[in-house]
Amino acid sequence: MINIAILGFGIVGSGSYDLTVQNAGLIEKKVGDSVKVKKIVDILDFSKHPAWSLFTKNFDDVMNDPSISIVIETIGGTRFAYDFTKRALAGGKNVVTSNKELVSTHGLELAEIAKKNNAVYLFEASVGGGVPIIRPLKQCLAANEIEEIFGIVNGTTNYILTKMRDEGISFEDALKEAQAKGYAEKNPTDDIEGHDPIRKMNILAWTAFGKMADPEDTNAKGISGVTAEDIKKAKADGCAIKLIGRAKMADGKVKCSVAPERVPLNNPLATVDGVYNAIVVRGNFVGDVTFHGQGAGGRATASAIIGDVIEIARDIVASRKRA
Question: Partner of 259 for a Cys bridge, out of 65, 161, 221, 223, CB 3.0 to 4.6 A?
């Protein structure tokens, strides 16, 4: 049996738990051993949850349990997630995360800590929700020199822009609808001002180019200034307004940007609507490869998280056989 712990039991953490339980048989077949959630760390009261006995408010309960080999971090932000992740990796525990703020801010350091302690730090879920992109960049496209990565990497803003175009409503009304459906946070600043997508572009740049962009080579502009009139004019001109992220190497430097762009309707990105993401990777041999799927929501993100868990669990099983 391979035991895991989940840090944070919000939309993504609970989705990861549900997926692990509901698809337990399938996961066991793919791994070669059962994968069980042994601890869930959250400061809220979950005494009425069916799995109440798994919950703890103390992260030390995870660190003091040598049987837990994989930690799923879904707390978000950096305040607690950074300390918990460092401690887990330093203690030789593998960590899987969906936390793009943590990865974009401290990923280089955390990856080095993991390496020094024979642990693994994986973050497929930090970009694109359920869209596989980190692993393909590392493996399937590894033989290519990546020339540029661009596309739609934020489901919240894409949903808002889609509603504005289809229904002719204002940015404010579209945002309220996104919040009502759980696609936007109560404080949506990270999404609508471009902070979330620029973090994702930096993670993609790190994966593709081996380093992130310096602050002076990073530019983020969100969609809060996009009006219904802007959408209407673009539509009349045969375009859709999309928030497009870009990452590329230029003059030996990594450059990342996010900004609203008018995308011609004959461009496939123009038809990517709702909470869907689409990321295009341009390789010098393969050309353009597009990765498309749901970029927001607990189930989609949980899919990517448990995919990373399965990869680590397979390696654990393989190392046991070699021992």
Answer: 221
- Report the C-alpha gap between 182 and 191 in whole angstroms: 13
Q: Is 200 a catalytic residue?
A: yes
Distance in angstroms (rounded) separating the CA atoms of residues 158 and 75: 24
Nearest to 62 by CA among 120, 121, 123, 6: 6
Residue 220 to residue 308: CA distance in whole angstroms: 29
Residue range 149-192, pLDDT digits in tens: 999 999 999 999 999 999 999 999 999 999 998 888 889 999 99
Identify whether the C-beta of residue 293 lies closer than 8 Å to the C-beta of residue 300: yes
Residues of the chain with CATH 3.40.50.720: 2-129+299-322
pLDDT at 62 over 80: yes
Of the listed ranges 97-101, 265-269, 271-275, 291-295, the one predicted with least confidence: 291-295
Q: What gap in Å lies between CA 146 and CA 208, rounded to an integer? A: 7
0.85 surpassed by pTM: yes
Considering the four listed CATH numbers 3.40.50.1010, 3.40.50.720, 3.40.50.300, 3.20.20.70, the one that applies to the domain covering 2-129+299-322 is 3.40.50.720
* Residue 323 pLDDT exceeds 80: no
- For residue 68, the cross-strand partners are 3
**DSSP helix/strand/coil, 93:** coil
Q: Which fold has domain 134-294?
A: Dihydrodipicolinate Reductase; domain 2 (3.30.360)
Cα–Cα separations (whole angstroms), residue 272 to 71, 152, 162: 33, 8, 9
Dihedral pair phi/psi, residue 162, rounded to 5°: -65, -45
Question: For the chain, where do the domains classified as CATH 3.30.360.10 start and end?
Answer: 134-294
Tokens of 252: 């030996």
At 208 the three-state DSSP class reads helix
Q: Which of 278, 240, 273 is nearest to 153 (CA)?
A: 278
